[in-house]
């Protein structure tokens, strides 16, 4: 469930990827870090907009941990 991912971002300050549906029905993919949340709203730092945003939990369609790039050692 995306609430677990949101809570994890809040507790670790790690960025997550979300897909969000705005009031007008448009979709956006965002890289965010959760700052605060309650049952209805999530207050995030949006890395794309470089600003704090207030998002409705019910409009977050997907949330996942950001995948780390693999580091390869070349010998």
- CATH topology label: SH3 type barrels
- The helix fraction, in percent, is 10-25%
Q: Tell me the span between the first and last alpha carbons.
A: 41 Å
Integer-rounded radius of gyration: 14 Å
Biggest β-sheet, characterized? Answer: 5 strands, antiparallel
Order of helices and strands: HEEEEE
Q: What is the CATH level 1 assignment?
A: Mainly Beta
From the 3D coordinates, which CATH architecture would you assign?
Answer: Roll
Shape: globular
Strand order of the largest sheet: 4-3-2-1-5
Number of domains: 1
| Number of extended strands | 5
On the 0-100 scale, what is the average pLDDT? 90
Structural class: mainly beta
Number of H/I helices: 1
Beta-strand percentage?
over 45%
Low-confidence stretches: none
Organism: Geomicrobium sediminis
Protein name: DNA-binding transcriptional regulator YafY
GO molecular function: DNA binding
Keywords: DNA-binding
Descriptive account of the structure:
This is DNA-binding transcriptional regulator YafY. With about 80 residues, the chain is mainly β. It has one domain: SH3 type barrels (Roll). The chain contains one helix and five strands. A five-stranded antiparallel β-sheet has the order 4-3-2-1-5. Strand 1 and strand 2 form a beta hairpin. It is globular, with a radius of gyration of 14 Å. The model has no long low-confidence stretch (mean pLDDT about 90).
